Amino acid sequence: MQVLVLGGHGKVARYLTPLLLDRAWNVTSVVRNPKHEDDIMSLGKGRKGKVNVLVSSLDQVKSASDARKILDTVSPDYVVWSAGAGGKGGPASTIAVDQEAAKHFLSASFASAYVSKFLMVSYLGCRRNKPIWMSDDDWAALMHVKTEALPTYVKAKLEADEYMTALVAKRKTDTSAHPLQAINLRPGFLIDAPATRKVQLGRTAGRGSVTREDVAIVADQLLVSADAEGWIDLINGDVPVEVAVQKVGKEKNDAVEGEDVKGMVRRFFP
Ligand SMILES: NC(=O)c1ccc[n+]([C@@H]2O[C@H](COP(=O)([O-])OP(=O)(O)OC[C@H]3O[C@@H](n4cnc5c(N)ncnc54)[C@H](OP(=O)(O)O)[C@@H]3O)[C@@H](O)[C@H]2O)c1
């Protein structure tokens, strides 16, 4: 199994990479700074799989064909998007990376003959409508982030999420398309603390944090799951990760419920 990890030097990605390597999967980690190569290579020491580094700046990915060139150098089975401009470089950089480059990698992956899973690390607050399982207070807190605290970030990530969802819906009508498992993992506020291995997963409360290590543990297990698909929200909770991942795969309670999926398809594929 070959996995391409975009945003490879990010904190979540650096927890995730050794987990994937321990499955005897090979990882190509895409970083923009050549100085990060040693850090990534050191993650591979003593692991079953092989890691290698591809230096590329995602803000230079301006089209699906640019993304395709990167994909084609690796021909990955699975693609993980865990990149994010993180507010550095201002709104333009956020749009270029979190929105545009993410969409180009989605387009190229869905069009490729070899990608069979795409896992996007998104954010719990990326949605337009209050879902029925969320309290008014939680929704108000998410809307504060969306409209006041991080408007460009949420707009950019929501656009990529909706594009992904539209691609999935469109693909369902294309009988010639090969199966592609599309997983939109949507953590709440990320914190740097040791993993608890206990989560709320699928449809969760709107407010809550999750450790970056737990995000990586969940992502690793979702990549192994044959069933997990759709929008999967994540915060720390009291259910063991293994149980929670199995449950979201089996029950298919897609947290996209309440959003206008047909509208997404019409918007992106008029
Ligand atoms: N912070 C939160 O509370 C929160 C909540 C929910 C979801 N998320 C999302 O979770 C994901 C992972 O988070 P994290 O904490 O691991 O983030 P992180 O540590 O900031 O990692 C993001 C990675 O993206 C890379 N990157 C940024 N711009 C790039 C570019 N132009 N070209 C190539 N790489 C670029 C960064 O590279 P450098 O190492 O060179 O800077 C960094 O390694 C992100 O998508 C984030 O948006 C965050």
Distance from N terminus to C terminus (CA atoms, Å) equals 36 Å
| Model regions low in confidence, pLDDT < 50 over at least 5 residues | none
**Global shape:** globular
Rg for CA atoms: 17 Å
In spatial order, strands of the major sheet run 3-2-1-4-5-6-10-8-11
Would you kindly provide a written description of the structure presented here, covering whatever features stand out?
With 270 residues, the protein is of the alpha/beta class. It has a single domain, classed as Rossmann fold. 44% of the residues lie in helices and 19% in strands. The chain is built from nine helices and eleven strands. The strands form two sheets. Strands 3-2-1-4-5-6-10-8-11 form a nine-stranded mixed sheet, sandwiched between helices. β1, α1 and β2 form a beta-alpha-beta unit. α3 crosses α4, α6 crosses α9 and α7 packs across α8. The longest helix has 22 residues. The chain starts with a strand and ends with a helix. 46% of the residues are buried. The model has no long low-confidence stretch (mean pLDDT 97).
Task: Give the gist of this structure.
The chain has helices at about 10-20, 35-40, 65-75, 90-110, 135-150, 150-170, 210-225, 240-250, 260-270; strands at about 1-5, 25-30, 50-55, 80, 115-120, 180-185, 190, 200, 210, 230-235, 240.
